[in-house]
Amino acid sequence: MHKLVVLYSEPADPDHFREYYVTTHLPLVMKMPGLLAWRYSFDVAATNGETPYFAIFEGDFADAAAMAAARSSPQGQRVAADVANYATGGAVVIHYPVQDGTG
C-alpha cells in the first residue's frame, strides 16, 4: 500500500475552500485511476498547541508506481491544476509506503 497525503494550510476564505473542495475538487479526485480509497477532514487538531493545517486528504494506492501513474494521468493533472482554485493557503503533498503493524 502507498499513501498520498495532502496537508492544507489555512485558506483566505475557509467557506469557499470547504464548498469548492467538496463539490468540485473531490469529484475530480475520485476519477484518478488506481485510487483505492480516500478520506479527508476539515477538523484537523494538534495534540499540543495550534495545528498548522486547516484540512487533510489521504489517498491509498496499491504501490508507488500506481500513485505516480495516477498523478501523471490526465485526471491527476486536472486534480493538481485545480488546487490553485481553493487552496490559497498552500498545500504540502507527501507520500510514503505503508507498513502494516499488529497490536
From TrEMBL:
Q: Which domain of life is it from?
A: Bacteria
Pfam families given for it? Answer: EthD
EthD domain location, by residue? Answer: 10-88
Please give the InterPro entries that the UniProt record associates with this protein.
Answer: Dimeric_a/b-barrel, EthD_dom
Q: What is this protein called?
A: Uncharacterized protein (TIGR02118 family)
